[in-house]
Structures are given as structure tokens and as C-alpha cells.
Amino acid sequence: MEGEKGMTEGAIAKGQRDGAGGAYPWYALLVLMIAYTFSYLDRQALTLMVGPIRKTLNITDTQLSLLHGFAFALFYTVLGVPLGRLVDQHRRTSIVALGVAFWSIMTALCGTAKSFGHMFFARVGVGVGEAALSPGAYSLIADYFPPSRLPQALSLYMSAIYLGSGFATILGGTLIMMMPVMSLPVMGHIEPWQGVFMVIGLPGLLVALWVATLREPVRRGAKKGVAPSFRAVLGHIGKNKGSYGFLIMGYAIFTLFWNGGVSWFPTLLMRVHGWTPAEVGIRYGSVIMLFGGAGVILGGALAAWLRRKGRTDGNILAGIVAVFIAVPAGIAGGFAPSGWSVLAAVAVFQFGCAMPFGAAAAALQEVTPNQMRGQVTAIYLFITNLFGIGLGPTLVALATDKLFGDDLALGSSISLTAVVAGPLAVALLYLARKPYRQTLAKADF
Fold first, then answer.
1. Is pLDDT at 85 greater than 90 in this prediction?
2. Where are the alpha helices (DSSP H) in 131-182?
3. 443 phi, psi to nearest 5 deg
């Protein structure tokens, strides 16, 4: 990786040519979207294969939720901060490319798991690799695009969540029905679900090579020779604790009920309503791609429209609107009487849950100095993923296993999570508006 502290004037000029204007920023955005899409393949494929994984590894819903959430989030969150510091100091495209390569290898290794411990270790490795992506991608996109286009650009990047989730659900449902039981040299007996992880993991190595070819843009507004310490970053956040604190915690609680729902709705359709993995794959996957993708793009457009109307807190208002759309749909989905009515509720739930996250990323970039963006993004992802990926699926599973004590009460657990978390998310985002406007008004970067 090459340091940027001593970047020459010629290198800066080249970065400006490479990173600004024309079609190249959109091309670079496309490549980053593809990388982000691949990052979601293994996450959603796992939710579709709950039954086979539980049977092979002889584990409970709670243990499965630890594989889906906690194991992944453990190092994804912890390593995000030091990786964010690397993003602030070194070539971002190289950091992202190495992360893509590492998580792709670890995803394939999930397919060799023979025990809960083995699978847990592989999922931790996936989290380690993916921790490099979004801090680097957010920082790159903020330099590829001017502020006026940033909400839309980041919303397009975030749409990869739904492209990846939907594609993984469709592909995973098809593959698990087609994949034969295999016996391979060294690895021995391989179940169909294990083969799926291998098939979706290894192509990511090609994506890593593609990311490595991207041009590094100049850092807009960065001060030459400045590489702030983590303590300095915390100091900046502390001086603006109202805007950062309420904003980050509001979206953290939002991700809790979002991930709690999307992690378990596929299992609800199979366990309670009798759909096969292939049926869930095609139907649920299509809904994720269509309504999730539409939600994040329209959410970014709403935030940008509010900004043009003079609402400097438009990136936060978009999140408040989203909660009022997503929470009622999440509650309805848990209690819906048929698979198709669950799917209709999921469509609205996904649309609402997708709306605010491009705007949320844009909000952070706007109030953060360029040379701190990687570390601040990592802190944001640390907290939101700890709540969303780490706690969301596990709270739903614990409610099913411990509170209701019935596998068929899964829908009630999903609804309960939305009932509790939704109002808290709205309250926190509402409280973020005034201090956020104040921070934005005094920003001098």
C-alpha cells in the first residue's frame, strides 16, 4: 500500500483528473457496487439454508443466529476502526481489494465446516475481510462525487445490499436444490449447503482483482501531511456528540429491527408456511431486489430533494419517514396468515428499511473532515452492525427459543422486535436533527 502523506502536486493533479468529472466516477461506483453485492451473497444464502445447516451441525436457532450475526460482527466491528485508520492514510482501492479477496476465501471455507466451532471461525474471517469494504468505499465515493450528487451516489452503492441479498436468495434457493452430495479429496463428504458456500465464495477473487485496478481519487479538502490519530477523531466526535451520538444510535436501532426481520423472514416462510427453499429463493429474492433497490434509490432522491429545498437535515428526515413505513409492515409480516401475505408485507418492509441508508452515509460524510472519514465510518459501522448484525438476529432467536419456547412463534418474535425498536429509532433520529444542523453550519472543511 502506498502512503499519501507526501503526495506531490503532480500526483494531486493526476488524482483530480482520475477522480472527478466524466464517466469514470460512475464506472468506479459500479465496481464498488459489485463488490458490495458479493459481500451480501454469503449473508443471505445462510438465512436460506437454516434447516440444512442446523441438521448437519446439530445446532439450535440461537446458535445459528450467532453464526449469522455475532460471529460475523465480532471482528467486522472490532477491526473496522484500525482498518478505517488505514483508509485515511493509504491507498483505499488496495485496502478494499485485499478485503474482498480475504472474505471470498473465508466464505468458501464456510463450505468445509464440520462443526459449530469451525463454522464460527470461518464466519469471523468473513467479517474480517468485509470490515475493509465500506470505510474505503464511502471515502472513495465522497471523493469521486461532489456533495450535490453524494446522496444519490451512496444510495446507488447501498442498493447493492438488496441486489446481493436478492441474488443470493434466488441463486442459493436454486443451487441448494440442484447441488448434489459430493465427496471431494481431502475435504471428504460435502453437503449441498456446503457446496453453495464454495460456489458463491470463490468468484469474489476475480472481483478483488477488478477493484485493484480502480484509480485512487484525490482526497477532497484533505490537509496535506495530516493523519489524525484515533484520539483526535474521538475528540471531533465528542465536540459534536449530539449530532453524531443521536444519528449513529438512531440508525443502529433501525438496523436492529431491519436485520432481525430479514434474517428470519425466509425461515418463517419455510417453517410456518411450508414454502420450499426454491420457492423462497425466487419469490423472496425477487422482492428484496425490486423493493429494497427501489427503496434505497428513492430514499436518496428524497434526501437530495429535501436538501435542495433548504432542509439541511434532509438526510435524517428520510430516516424518520422510513421508520413509519417499515415498522407497521414488519409487524404485519410476523402475524400474516399466509406465505403470500407475508411476502406482501416484506415488500413494504424492505422498501422502508432500505430508504435511509444512503442518506445516512451521506450525512456522516458531510459533517466529517476528509482525513477522518475512514475512521468515523468505521465507528458508525461498528455500532450499527453490533446492534444490527450482532444483536438483531439473536434477539429474534432468543425470543423464539426462550420467551415463546416454540419454533412456530417465529413471526411473533419478528413483530416484537419491530414494536420495541421502531419508536426508539424515531425518537433518536428526531433528537439528532437540531445538533446535526448546528454541526453542519459550523463545518469549515
1. no
2. 133-144, 150-158, 160-178
3. -65, 135
Cell numbers 468445509: residue: 112
Could you give the CA distance from residue 150 to residue 250 in angstroms, rounded to a whole number? 21
Residue with cell 471431494: 184
Q: What is the pLDDT of residues 241-284, one digit of tens each?
A: 888 999 999 999 999 999 888 889 999 999 999 998 888 878 98
Residues 292/350, Cβ–Cβ less than 8 Å: yes
What backbone phi and psi angles, to 5 degrees, belong to 181? -70, 130
Q: Is the pTM of this model over 0.70?
A: yes
- Closest of 67, 57, 62 to residue 394, by C-alpha: 62
> Under 8 Å CB-to-CB from 157, ≥6 apart: which residues?
29, 32, 33, 36, 137, 141, 358, 361
By mean pLDDT, which of 151-165, 212-226, 313-327 is the weakest?
212-226
Q: Using CA atoms, how far apart are residues 288 and 273, in angstroms rounded to an integer?
A: 19
pLDDT at residue 184, as a whole number: 67
Q: Which three cell numbers stand for residue 200?
A: 458463491
DSSP 63-74: HHHIIIIIHHHH
Summarize pLDDT for 129-169 with one digit per residue, the tens. 888 888 889 889 988 988 778 878 888 888 887 777 777 77
How far apart CA 351 and CA 223 sit, in angstroms, is 39
| Residue (of 244, 263, 208) closest to 94 by Cα position | 208
Grid coordinates of 113:
465446516
Query: Angle at the Cα of 129 (from 128 to 135), degrees rounded to 5?
Result: 95
Compute the distance between CA of residue 445 and CA of residue 443 in angstroms, rounded to an integer. 6
